[in-house]
Amino acid sequence: MITASALNNASCETIAALMDQHGWSVSRQLKGDGVRIEGARRGGSAVMVTGKPRSEGPWDLSFYVIGTPEDGWTGWAKVRRAGLIAFIETGELPQDARRWLVRSSKCRCRKVHEGTQWRALRLLVGVQLARLSSEGVESEKRVYRCPADARRWHMTSQDKRGAEVWRECSMNV
Q1: Residue pair 42/28 in contact by the 8 Å Cβ criterion
Q2: In this structure, how many other beta carbons lie within 10 angstroms of the beta carbon of residue 41?
Q3: Predicted confidence band at 6 (pLDDT cuts at 50, 70, 90)?
Q4: Exposed, middle or buried: residue 168 (CB in 10 Å: 0-12, 13-18, 19+)?
Q5: Which residues pair with 51 in a beta bridge?
Q6: Does the structure show a pLDDT above 60 at 102?
Q7: How many CB atoms lie within 10 A of CB 39?
Q8: CA distance 50 to 61
Q9: What's 160's DSSP letter?
């Protein structure tokens, strides 16, 4: 069990362990010296922790959560560490938790997008089923993370191209 004092100074790996403890599907990724820990649950809820090293002191961490339609909000929200931890443990943000809805994006693709891989895959299946009767029409084959914004997923009819910038890993940050 993770202690309260450990959570006050929670590193990415401590947060990932907490996600594991509460049944989240966890992904650990690296890009250069940056790290990203993602957790997802069936239904579309997701959490993301991004981190960059500082020249001195602890890492600079940012915390994001995304709710479900039942929660009344389906977009990414930036939260404080305590809000993220409560969301991981209960699946809900406390009523008094500060949240900043993320409205801007670096994505300039103008493609249909979803906030999580789970939601993008659900949309992909729906599109594929709808196009089964349209022979000869090329259908979307896969989903991929937007290269400009980690909080967006797109669909494409193209086969996998090139290596992903972020690579899956195990880490101790």
Answers
A1: no
A2: 18
A3: very low
A4: exposed
A5: 35, 61
A6: yes
A7: 24
A8: 6
A9: P
Tokens (6 digits) for 16? 């990932």
Single out the residue of 86, 103, 83 nearest to residue 152, CA to CA. 103
Query: In the Cβ-directed half-sphere of 157, how many Cα atoms lie within 13 Å?
Result: 8
DSSP string, 86-144: HHHHHSS--TT--EEE----S----S--BSSHHHHHHHHHHHHHHTTTSTT-----EEE
Rounded average pLDDT over 3-31: 74
Over residues 114-133, mean pLDDT: 79
User: Which position has the higher pLDDT, 172 or 93?
Assistant: 93
pLDDT bracket for residue 98 (50, 70, 90): confident
Tokens 């103008």, residue? 110
Q: In whole angstroms, what is the distance from residue 72 CA to residue 76 CA?
A: 12
The amino acid at residue 151 is R
Q: Which of 162, 163, 128 is nearest to 142 (CA)?
A: 128
For the cut 60, the answer to whether the pLDDT of residue 87 exceeds it is yes
Structure tokens at 126: 């729906």
Task: Say what the pLDDT of residue 106 is.
Answer: 77
Do 75 and 66 meet the contact criterion of CB atoms below 8 Å apart? yes
